[in-house]
Amino acid sequence: MLADPPPPEHDVHLRVQLGGLLLDYRATSTAARNFLADWKRTHCETIEIIIDSTEDRQQLPRLPCERLFLYP
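Structure (tokenized):
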């Protein structure tokens, strides 16, 4: 059985750099924070959360497998 969905959160802009490739996604702040923690343990590539973005985050694709990062 799936857990109850989390309360609504604001989305953040998440940017991952793999070599010369920049990947931009949107994710809930909880999923982004957990993704960052996991990424730091297993990768050395750059990743950042863009706080002051004038871009419309709704145009960005959602972080793949975002649900996996909703809970620690």
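The mean pLDDT is 80. Helices lie at 29-42.
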